[in-house]
């Protein structure tokens, strides 16, 4: 096995990688990239790949951020980590590692989450994924779950979290015991020579892990939830899970299988979180079959077209303006839905519902745009709650006053959406013109209502038709 070690940079993070058996690289097949889980390292996979991979196949191992020997930038802080952060870093790392070459991503645990997140957001390199004990939500069981809950409580638990990592670093026995807690049958796991070799491969890295960087990472992982985005995956996807996983519950695995279109499920009986060690032969056979299934699946033409488009917009406020669309639609949906629920007048209720329908259509188009352009979707926090509260007030107040508030409420959004429209390139122009037009239509509706114009819904219905 010929191994080359290196680093790629992405979003200020330096991620370690192993390039294995590069002399066997095939131009006809996608690269195979393995991503480990938390508290492991880039060396995790050296003995956890199928026997055929040792000498007979090219493959890569890519590190998670904040895991030695990978390093974090000086400005890495609490609150940075979310779904978009993971996508931007791992997507950038794949592009730096592979260039334009396509890849199948095999991820374990948090690596499995990364694979799913890359697929949701149509990462340009990725043509298929295999999630091994992956999750959609940062809610775990077992010892790792306790660490996750601890970090999720915020900065006042930083010292306690770091102390737990330091205890593990101080004793090989503690590290081995901790690792065995991930398995269903701890004794069989510890008796398997592969479990010890895997720990030995990572020993130098585990002793050098940065507890504070890990705390910031765990804190962010505790907030993750991509369940509502899984339906956007449109590439081959395999979900590997154990029947007795102490970390990722059976319910989480079932959500993945049920929500990812055409996902193929492989379940390992009497196995916990480490199927490649607990039931190696079965796991390796399943992995080889899954890889063959993905390689044999033609890449849809439309996916190639999406990934080859030039969507870039580089003015300074672009990312914030783009996110404001999502915030606006989540907020508007909640406002108009609540107002419709509390309005007594049937005619006015229908008008609120028409506005709600426009917001839903715009949100759907926004999510489609993000998928097609390969950008991460960040769920707005607090906007739905704010919208429900303000919608309740609108639904109960005098109509003319409500219309003045609706009209004036569009102005801050119009400013952002006009800027997007004015900076759009050819591929983006239609979408951003629609976004701006939808906000102007809501303004026009309110103004016509104030004038008692019976055609107040004309612009809304035109966009809905």
What does this molecule look like?
- The structure is a single chain.
- With 465 residues, this protein is α/β, with parallel strands linked by helices.
- The chain has 2 domains: 3-305, Alpha/Beta hydrolase fold, catalytic domain (Rossmann fold, 3-Layer(aba) Sandwich), CATH 3.40.50; 311-464, Ferritin, core subunit, four-helix bundle (Ferritin).
- Helices cover 56% and strands 11% of the residues.
- It is built from 19 helices and 8 strands.
- It has helices at 51-56, 83-98, 110-120, 142-152, 158-170, 172-180, 186-191, 193-207, 211-221, 250-259, 275-278, 280-295, 301-308, 318-342, 346-372, 383-396, 399-423, 426-450, 458-464; strands at residues 3-10, 13-20, 31-35, 59-62, 103-108, 126-132, 237-242, 264-268.
- The chain has an 8-stranded mixed sheet, sandwiched between helices.
- Helix 10 (250-259) links the parallel strand 7 (237-242) and strand 8 (264-268).
């Amino acid at each position: 096995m010929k191994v080359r070690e290196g680093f790629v940079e992405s979003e200020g993070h330096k991620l370690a990688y192993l390039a294995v058996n590069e002399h066997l690289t095939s131009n006809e097949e996608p690269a195979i990239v393995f991503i480990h889980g938390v508290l492991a390292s880039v060396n995790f996979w050296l003995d956890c790949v199928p026997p055929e991979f040792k000498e007979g196949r090219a493959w890569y191992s890519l590190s998670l951020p904040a895991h030695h020997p990978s390093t974090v930038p000086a400005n890495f802080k609490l609150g940075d980590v979310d779904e978009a952060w993971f996508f931007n870093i791992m997507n950038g790392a794949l592009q730096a590692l592979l260039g334009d070459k396509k890849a199948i991503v095999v991820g374990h645990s948090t690596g499995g989450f990364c694979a799913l997140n890359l697929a949701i957001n149509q990462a340009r390199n990725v043509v298929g994924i295999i999630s091994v004990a992956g999750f959609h939500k940062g809610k775990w069981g077992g010892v790792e779950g306790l660490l996750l809950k601890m970090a999720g409580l915020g900065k006042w638990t930083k010292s306690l979290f770091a102390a737990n990592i330091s205890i593990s670093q101080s004793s090989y026995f503690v590290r081995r015991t901790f690792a065995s807690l991930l398995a269903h049958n701890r004794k069989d796991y510890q008796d398997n020579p592969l479990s010890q070799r895997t720990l030995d491969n990572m020993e130098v890295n585990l002793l050098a892990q940065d507890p504070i960087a890990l705390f910031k990472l765990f804190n962010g992982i505790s907030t993750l939830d991509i369940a509502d985005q899984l339906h956007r995956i449109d590439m081959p996807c395999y979900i590997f899970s154990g029947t007795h996983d102490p970390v990722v519950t059976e319910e989480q695995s079932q959500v993945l299988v049920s929500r990812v279109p055409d996902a193929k499920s492989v379940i390992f009986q009497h196995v916990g979180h480490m199927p490649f060690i607990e039931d190696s032969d079965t796991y390796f056979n399943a992995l080889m079959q899954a890889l063959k299934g993905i390689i044999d699946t033609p890449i849809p033409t439309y996916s190639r077209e999406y990934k080859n488009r030039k969507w870039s917009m580089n003015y300074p406020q672009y990312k914030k303006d783009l996110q404001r669309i999502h915030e606006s639609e989540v907020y508007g949906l909640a406002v108009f839905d609540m107002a419709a629920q509390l309005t007594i007048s049937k005619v006015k209720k229908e008008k609120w519902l028409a506005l709600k329908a426009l917001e839903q259509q715009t949100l759907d188009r926004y999510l489609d745009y993000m998928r097609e352009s390969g950008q991460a979707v960040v769920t707005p926090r607090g906007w739905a709650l704010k919208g429900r509260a303000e919608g309740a007030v609108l639904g109960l107040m005098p109509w003319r006053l409500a219309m003045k508030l609706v009209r004036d409420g569009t102005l801050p959004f119009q400013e952002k959406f006009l800027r997007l429209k004015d900076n759009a390139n050819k591929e983006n122009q239609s979408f951003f013109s629609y976004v701006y037009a939808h906000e102007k239509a809501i303004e026009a509706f309110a103004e016509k209502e104030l004038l008692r114009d019976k055609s107040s819904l004309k612009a809304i219905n035109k966009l809905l038709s």
